[in-house]
Amino acid sequence: KHFAWRACQDILPTRVNLFRKGVNVDVYCPFCGEDYETQTHIFLDCLVAKDIWAKSPFRLNINGRPQKNFVDWCFYLCDGLDDETRGLFFTFLWVIWNSRNKWIFEGIRWNTITMIIYAVDYWRILLEATKQKEGRLTLTKEANETWEPPPVGIVKINTDASLASAEFRGLGAVFRDHLG
């Protein structure tokens, strides 16, 4: 979910996004070297991405799509997908991103068939694990809604923090002894 959210916000650390943040980096695609590495390029316009989408279970022809950027295309495509297929779609995106990182940081280059097999297998494992987890019934104890004081001589500290954005943050703490 975190990857999908970052991808849909266009904030993955592509080479172009890193360059915009002041990082001195080669901005060209590590897969093909033919264009700037933006999310639109790495997931749609790169020859590797086009090959993956064409050979994937989605059988997508990326050429001639009406959406000009990745985020618009992603929202357009996901609108017509059920939850399970949408999950597989984002798994494919994650595998493209992950294989890009393996190539850059580990020197391991996966071919498109390996990426496709990995994405399908990974999604299948995630689905099975989710179904197994949902199949287990766990009983939880209801939370105690009354405050219990600590023993004499001990201070109880309750804390909470929140981060809504870079501008809005909150932090709170309550210190209480046995008297409250």
Automatic annotation (TrEMBL):
Transmembrane segments: none
Record domain Reverse transcriptase zinc-binding: where: 1-53
Top-level taxon of origin: Eukaryota
InterPro entries: RNase_H-like_EbsB-rel (IPR052929), RVT-Znf (IPR026960)
Protein name: Reverse transcriptase zinc-binding domain-containing protein
